[in-house]
Design a protein that fits this description.
This protein is an alpha+beta fold. It is 51% helix and 10% strand. The chain folds into two domains: 18-47; 62-241, 3-Layer(aba) Sandwich (Glutaredoxin), CATH 3.40.30.10.
């Protein structure tokens, strides 16, 4: 019986994938890598929100007093408006710091954090910081800052109503058109993004709690900071000595 013919076998080209396929794969890889790079840059992100009149770029806080110079102490304060110890520090040295800034004896930078919102389950730190930025536009940052701390609730976590934060504007000396502009600014949440940038900037600066006080870039030791709050340490001596 004759053997049946062998089945026909199709030859597979040894030339490899087509140039079109290779090009498509390369384009896909480039697109994926580009997307990952863009995602990483966006996630790390620049801090680009616009702040108020005296706000530093990149969430650096409000800077008042003398221009930055080696001739005067550079004082930086990190705080959260809902932080009880920040309120104690404000009561102890707030007026002194404000007076020295207004007299041009120091450069004072205040970075208002809002991390306690997450801890306390409210948004009062964010709203108070935003209102303080609105007050800054009207030339009343330091008075408003002082009024908010003076009105800090006895019970941590109680926070402030919108009406209270607006009322603090008048208590800080705002009247007429300035008060109207301040009110509109607060109600519009004008500086919410900058407040978020201040918190992120603080995170990047390694600030994990408040209050934190730095003089000429050096953090004031906890014992000296406690001394300021208790009245056993002198602010003038600290500024002269550094941290």
């Amino acid at each position: 019986m004759p053997r049946p013919p062998a089945p026909e076998v199709k030859r597979v080209s040894s030339a490899g994938p087509s140039p079109v396929l290779i090009g498509a794969v390369v384009l896909l890889v480039v697109a994926l890598v580009g997307g990952l790079v863009l995602w990483a840059v966006t996630r790390q992100g620049g801090l680009e929100a616009t702040g108020s009149a005296n706000a530093l770029p990149e969430g650096g806080g409000i800077q008042v007093g003398a221009p930055v110079s080696d001739d005067v102490p550079q004082v930086q304060l990190y705080e959260d408006f809902q932080c009880p110890w920040c309120g104690v520090l404000e009561e102890a040295v707030g007026d002194d710091l404000a007076a020295r800034a207004e007299a041009g004896e120091i450069t004072l930078t205040v970075t208002m954090m809002s991390f306690l919102d997450g801890t306390l389950g409210n948004d009062s730190s964010r709203r108070a910081a935003g209102a303080a930025l609105c007050a800054d536009d009207e030339g009343a940052f330091l008075p408003y800052h002082a009024v908010v701390f003076a009105g800090q609730p006895a019970q941590e976590g109680t926070g402030w109503t919108d009406e209270e934060l607006l009322g603090f504007g008048e208590a800080a000396g705002l009247t007429g058109e300035s008060l109207s502009s301040f009110t509109a600014c607060v109600q519009d949440g004008t500086y919410d993004d900058y407040v978020a940038d201040m918190q992120e900037r603080s995170n990047r600066d390694g600030i994990t709690g408040t209050p934190r006080l730095l003089v000429d870039g050096e953090q004031v030791e906890d014992t000296r900071l406690q001394g300021l709050m208790e009245g056993s340490a002198d602010l003038g001596e600290l500024l002269a000595d550094g941290s």
